[in-house]
Task: structure prediction
Amino acid sequence: MDRAHTEGEANTSQARAEWAARETDAAARDLLDRDAGAFLHQALSSPCVATIAKAEGIWIEDMAGRRYMDFHGNSVHHIGYGHPRLVQAIKDQLDALPFSPRRFANDVATDLAEKLGQITPGDLSKVLFTTGGSDANEVALKIARAATGRFKTISFWDSYHGAGFGAAAVGGEATFRSHIAGPLIPGTEHVAPFHPTQCPYGHDTLEKSAEACAGMMEYVLGREGDVAAVIAEPMRAVPIVPPPGFWKAVRAACDRQGALLIFDEIPTGLGKTGRMLSFEHDEVAPDIVTFGKALGGGILPIAATIARSDLDVAGDFAIGHYTHEKNPVTARAALTTIQIIEDEGLVDRSARLGAAAMDRLRETVGASPIVSDIRGRGLMFGVEIGSERDARIPDPDRAERIYYACLAEGLSFKISAGSVLTLSPPLTILEEDLDRALTIVETAIRAAA
Result:
């Protein structure tokens, strides 16, 4: 089970230690000890404090039989765990064609490439598959360099684009940067994000902060003069929603300065925010977009980079020479996942359930002295926890206590940015299960206040 903690958080805390101490099952304790001995230790994953033995639908179950609704899932479980149609499609593909060397064409990989071009707005139709989102973002950066003849980028501090050297260089989280001795790749300029609680622009509203941020983006683009691309998450998965007009302003600035716009849709795409792609809310189109995480249906790893057709300019070079580049089994998983999302109407369902959930939270806990904000899109929403003295001051300790109180009641989620209870259930969740989860959160917030 994922420990569901904030970016940059240390590996120890009193609440986490108390939770780990509750594990009395001998087999589970043995597995945790073996895990700690076998894996390299790093923030956000290992050592673990709980086990997992089963994952089905919205549920995960540990070795002692305790079940939890998973409202995190590393953003892979849009269609739930083990969707029967997806499992059968993978089994059938294994029987038909289990592997394809990348220099051979196979129909399922080509079908997936064409399908991604169909669901992506604008003239984004040229595709390359990778095994993970970090690689997909690095392919996007290579395309931008090849197409523009430039090497610089602009991105946000506090953003996340993967753990590779290139992805970590354009990312802005200290967790993925500060341990690396020496420089990352050059030319990676950063600006402060647009959210008023996370940037130094000095504005107390989202709209004013975003306006200042867009102005800073234009300023840096102009001052550098040779930026290949702006790379960003169209909606931060923490979550932070851009105000109307923000991305239009950035898009216009990129066009004026000859820079490409790359959107990282790895956690937010495929219906999570109530649109197939989250940037559709903002009525803009990037030059390149990346997918990952949920693309494999919560079973297999696959990611994709999709570019405008006129950016297919690197044919003489290897920009993403991956062994599993055209793997028919991972391609089948991705293609079937998209078909399930479409056939079951999960994009509209995400919009409807998410709006109702946020309305309910605003009504039930929005006036709590420790709740500073409730925000999100679709089934990716969050409750920001602050101090009783001033809710605008983040209170990570209180947020963590709320998290473990919810975990004890059978609900797992992620704490983002130190103090945001980030709730991201599968798009297939039953309404009664969503209601039950919200009741658990509301009860824990009231107790913490």
Summary: The longest strand covers residues 124-130. The two ends are 28 Å apart (CA to CA). The chain has a mean pLDDT of 93.
